[in-house]
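User: Hey, quick favor. My workstation is busy. Could you predict this chain's structure for me?
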Amino acid sequence: MRHVSFSADNEIALLHSGAGFFPALITAIDAARVEIYLETYIFSIDDTGILVRDALQRAAARGVVVCVITDWIGTGRVETRQLKQTLMQAGVHHRSFNPWFRRGIARSHRKLCVVDRQCAFVGGLNINDDMISDDSHRSVLPAPRWDFAVRIVGPLVQDIHREMYAQWMRIGHMKLRARWENFKRARHTLPVPVHGEALAGLVVRDNLRNRRTIQRTYLQALGHARDSAFLANPYFAPGRKMRRALEEAALRGVRVTLLLGVGQFRMQDAVAHSFYPKLLAAGVRIVEYTRTQLHAKVAVVDDHWATVGSSNYDGLSLFVNQEANVVINDRGFSEYLRAEIEIGAAEGRVVHLSDFANVPWYKRLWHGTAFLMYRTVIHIITLGKDA
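Assistant: No problem, here it is.
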């Protein structure tokens, strides 16, 4: 496993949901002078997606090199074809990640953007409308989807750019001359303004050199926790190491709060509920977010370590798919994010151990069956390496 490479003197701004993220993203795209790299799991052609698409096309029209990667499953087969045609007609380069599962079952779940190697975005937001459910039902949400991203200015942007450029080259089929032209352009470095003092690093998960990087980053943070740990995630189905780390932190007196999304997938909720009794018995506080769809993948430990990104706490994100998080060691940022998680927790429903004292046998059977089914599938997909 690669060690996380941190850089100092980064300015990092927390962007809350689409209201904070999309205006900042579009402003950066409209200011681009040289190049834009954008990766997303879902790129919907809805009102929000059209705004981002049009901004990318405006950039290409004024001579900016624009490269977009979307996931073939996340965006959809038909939608991918339509998006590709529209973007390429406007001069935007587009590539689809792993169409028809030609490179196995892994998906690219990353949400990244770099503009002119000066400004980067990392987070959990797809390119889709905040008020529409991102599952197959496409139902209207009662409130904007609860999610986060960060805007980064500083030395870390170069690391994110290198990762995105490498991804673009990995999944493409380019002639030698085109590769040489891209290489020459990559050597041209624009001046990077430095503001702020945050120490931060990019953490990615893939199936080559970074198979366990994101999980081990979480395990290390929880293992060193002394006071508090606040974690928010929509899908809770981690391996035993992650669950044990949460339990051990709570048992040694750390205030562990899990803010989890519920209500989107019935089987996912059942799998999560199968873990609740043991976690609650160890002292972990569990809150189910019920106001709207929770999509954030964020955490804060001891008010100085924080992470924002795309990785869920489930087998697909931790052991199969490609993911990207940013880890931030900065007290001011961490305290601010922790306050946002606490606000979310105040809007949720606290789960108590007593809630499971008189659960009917058929519900216990459903929880156990859901876990076994999920565990078997993940075990097969990962060849038994999903600990």
